[in-house]
Specification:
11 helices, 226 residues, 0% strand
Length: 226
């Protein structure tokens, strides 16, 4: 956990200087920035392996609402995902959360974009390759004919994907979890972050940011329980 904490602090101090994770063509790029900043502060305050899912979801809310970038965009608006939702979709990691995507009220094309994003991470360890793939996908999403509201949802998820990938693969490249829950590589954390954003879709951009942060903290807690 100590390694994680200092890695997250480094992300805030140095990670954004070179804009290694950013894409100026994505107008929802700020969601990924919020994601990483909130996680840094949350892990600074709390040790998640000792917390239940319900406790994490409760304690993450004030950290989100106190983030300056979040406040400037959304004020006090907050969409909370529930413990039941997290538990319901946790097994869907085996399907890269494609069932979660199918359960959303989105067009077929928007769902296909989200599935392509989620399915692209299994076994991934090379951030540069991931970044190029996500940027390419974003170009196609921007040029697509899905509605503007669906572009908000899908491009919000891709922004989370880019920044989460940098956080877990570059700043905190822990190759495997510290327990035997899954034996998966760090890509599991990235996919879980994106899935949280999908869970938050009913809350719009604010929900995507809050949902991604919440499931990120939960996945870190699960992966580090003794």
């Amino acid at each position: 956990m100590k390694k994680l904490f200092f890695g997250l602090i480094a992300t805030v101090m140095f990670g954004f200087v070179g804009n290694a994770q950013s894409n100026s063509k994505n107008e929802y790029d700020y969601l990924g920035v919020i994601h990483n900043e909130v996680l840094s502060e949350f892990f600074k305050q709390f040790k998640t392996p000792n917390m239940s899912i319900e406790e994490i979801l409760t304690k993450i809310k004030p950290v989100v609402l106190e983030n300056q970038k979040y406040k400037s965009k959304f004020g006090s608006k907050y969409y909370a995902i529930t413990t039941n939702q997290v538990k319901q979709y946790m097994p869907d990691i085996a399907n890269n959360f494609n069932t979660l995507v199918d359960d959303q009220k989105l067009s077929f094309e928007a769902k296909e974009f989200l599935k392509e994003l989620l399915n692209s991470f299994e076994g991934a360890t090379d951030f540069d390759k991931i970044y190029k793939n996500v940027i390419s996908l974003e170009d196609r999403i921007i040029a697509s004919k899905i509605s503007n509201s669906e572009k908000e949802f899908v491009l919000g998820a891709t922004s989370i994907a880019r920044y989460s990938s940098y956080l877990w693969l570059v700043e905190n490249p822990n190759p495997t979890f510290t327990n035997s829950l899954s034996g998966r590589f760090r890509w599991w954390s990235i996919v879980a972050d994106i899935a949280g954003g999908v869970l938050g879709i009913p809350g719009g951009a604010a929900g995507i940011a809050a949902g991604a942060v919440a499931t990120s903290a939960v996945s870190e807690a699960i992966s580090n329980k003794p």
